[in-house]
Amino acid sequence: MSLSDFEVLKKLGDGAYSTVYQVKRKTDNQIYALKKVRMASLKPKEKRNALNEVRIMASIKHPNVISYKEAFFDDESGSLCLIMEYADSGDLYQKILAYQKKGCYLSENYIWNIFIQLLRGLKALHDLSILHRDLKSANVFLNKDGTVKLGDMNVSKVAKDGLLYTQTGTPYYASPEVWRDQPYDAKSDMWSLGCVLYEAITLKPPFRAEDMNGLFQKVVKGEYPPIPRTFSKDLANTLSQLLQIEASRRPSCEVMLRSSLLQRHIAEKYTETDSLHENSLLGSIKLPKNIKLITDFLPKPNYRDLRANFSEPIPSSEKTPSKSPSKSKFSTNRSYLTHDSEEKKASSLSPTEKNHNIFSPKRYREILKESYGALKLPKIRYPGKGIIHHIKIKRNPDDIFSTRSLPLQRGANERLERIKEVYLKKAVPRLGLSPDPRTPIKVSYKPTSWT
């Protein structure tokens, strides 16, 4: 196929070197998502990463993972075109914002449905030794029929020996081992899943601070506020298992799905249903010298609907809350909170919570949504600009964030300063703010010696 076989309906989003559109295939009038990657703008390694996303998506055939449909090269625009499943109900982040605006929580049943489907989708990746590495609410896609899809595999990677070393992820969801610049495995995804679960429950990320250094301290200590008492102990226990500081103590997807705790919230007992979807990791896609010949090396088209073979019942979706909570079908649910009663007032979102710090509410949401893609150390990439900065931080004894005030290993403070430089010097000014004057940053581009 080619781009002429699709009708572009609207733009869905932009990346550093890519644009995503909603398109309609002319042969069957079905709606899909089209991702165009401008290959001419990429370096060889970045081109291989783009092909790796195609490889991973084509390898996974599961109802809870955004499915691959087709890939081809468009000569006219010089772009790699990836056709994939379109989620017709947005993403979890958008739903969280809608409920946040209304001042009410998602129902607990709906949260369990989201979580269980995410577990199944993530298990499909982990079974092939694929780490997602950027699991967050904005990458959890929803359909009107109630299905939940895990998507955005642009930084996903195969862990050949079970471990990865490149520090990648969005800070609010990054695991302690990623923050510490340590090797990590699939258990790092489980931490991120716990952060998504917490955010679905409370409408806020579990770890929040006024600066990146404070965020680091909270993550590595595992300090997060308890969830509202309106939710069950089962949810609290599930969170405590996922947000364990020690990666080895976190359960795998398989263990969680078979646990008695989750079985109480699964309509039918967990079986080997997922194994019916035969997944096998495709070989690496060869990058030809002539990029126009890349179509010959791409996976074959696959427009089959996976839901037809999904034997387990799909839970119904939860609609965005209406303006009249009393008319909502969730108005009797104890998790549906408004400002109508004293009990509900105590559990609703307070103005203090809504105006926590520079990372909240609207400005925080923009940073959280965009998050400048994935954070990668020691080179920090800005997908919005396609620039890589090499930053050396000069130690300042008078700086309140000097190495003397942090019990960190040698070099860890430098990584924190790099992160702070990116998000407070780049992200915050973009949103019309200025960095906190209490956190001075001195930058030097010459190698420094540490004492």
Would you give an account of this structure?
- The protein is of the alpha+beta class and 451 residues long.
- Helices cover 30% and strands 14% of the residues.
- It has 13 helices and 15 strands.
- The strands form 6 sheets. The chain has a 5-stranded antiparallel β-sheet, covered by helices on one side. Strands 6-9 form a two-stranded antiparallel ribbon.
- A hairpin with a 4-residue loop joins β12 and β13.
- α3 packs antiparallel against α5.
- It is globular and about 55 Å long.
- The chain starts with 5 loop residues before the first strand and ends in a 7-residue tail after the last strand.
- The C terminus is likely disordered.
- Keywords: ATP-binding, Kinase, Nucleotide-binding, Serine/threonine-protein kinase, Transferase.
- It comes from Blepharisma stoltei.
- Its EC number is 2.7.11.1.
- Belongs to the protein kinase superfamily. NEK Ser/Thr protein kinase family. NIMA subfamily.
- One of its GO terms (molecular function) is protein serine/threonine kinase activity.
